[in-house]
Amino acid sequence: MSYGLPKKVFIREVGPRDGLQNESKFIATQDKIDWINQLSLTGLNYIEVTSFVNPTWIPALADADTVTKQIKKAPGVTYAALVPNRRGLDRALESQIDEVSVFISASESHNKENINKTISETEIVLSEVVRESIANNKSIRGYISTVFGCPFEGKVEINEVIRLTDSLFEMGIEELSLGDTIGVAHPLQVRILLEELLKRYPQDKIAMHFHNTRGTAMANVLASLEMGITKFDSSLGGLGGCPYAPGASGNLATDDLHYMLSSMGIQTNINTAKLHSAALFIQEKMKKPLDSHTVKYRMKE
Ligand code: MG
Asked: CA-based diameter of the chain, in Å?
């Protein structure tokens, strides 16, 4: 009954980082810690907890060091954090994070806007971060953002995505997450890119990071599943809006993704009730309704 689909999927929960960094409300440090501790007990085996960027860039995550040090790490869960440069890596290592995530954009203007460096300048910085992470026995995940379209340039060349993919794997990353940062991707685009990448890399090296800005995230997940992809990034409750369109949806919601996968008989290892209470917890702290369909539906029950 698998219809050629994977039997098991691994969800990378990015809400505490990618969700909160795109919300204007500052969540108290203790609330973040309590929330991550709840997420740790849902069955999720991967949580991106924060970002060690300069706190003046992202004030919402200025407490990265405290959060990372004070969460209660559950066995079997990988705790990851975003690291932009050597300074961020030193903080991450000091905080005993399990896995380091590095990021780069496939579009020159988005990269410049995001971190004020060109793509090639960023590659130099990242190769040092990856080398030092490996020297410190940390696993590394790479992110490429704006893979399916850029808010400034529009079209992004598939060849540039492939070139950056090769560059990151040559540096030594273990898994690559392909980000649809502005939520423009559609299923055919996903197939076309994955067909190229899967000629070069096995399916388990690639994760997909979709945004639901135009309602296509779940269709893109299905297209990826049909290509054998088993790793997806998502944010509980769909937390994290779109930085380019205030009020628009951002990250695909973990609870919606879990609903679809588990209904299809695909294992996620997640406990639905615990996931829902973690969503209600952060909804209360955000003091606004979350975006996910599952939360909205269950609120009526
Ligand atoms: Mg995102």
From this structure: 52
Does residue 5 sit within a domain? no
CB neighbours of 130 closer than 8 A, spacing ≥ 6? 102, 140, 168, 171, 172, 173
CA-closest candidate to residue 234, choices 156, 189, 293: 293
pLDDT digits (tens, 9 = 90+) for 258-269: 999 999 999 999
CATH number of the domain where residue 282 is located: 3.20.20.70
| Domain membership flag for residue 76 | yes
Q: Mind telling me the catalytic residues?
A: 242
1 part of a folded domain: no
CA 211 to ligand 1 centroid distance, Å = 6
State pLDDT tens for residues 169-207: 999 999 999 999 999 999 999 999 999 999 999 999 999
Compute, in angstroms, the gap from residue 26 CA to the centroid of ligand 1. Answer: 18
Cα of 280 to ligand 1 centre, how many Å? Answer: 20
Tell me if 232 is assigned to some domain. yes
DSSP label of 104: E
Cα angle value 142/9/283 (rounded, 5°): 80
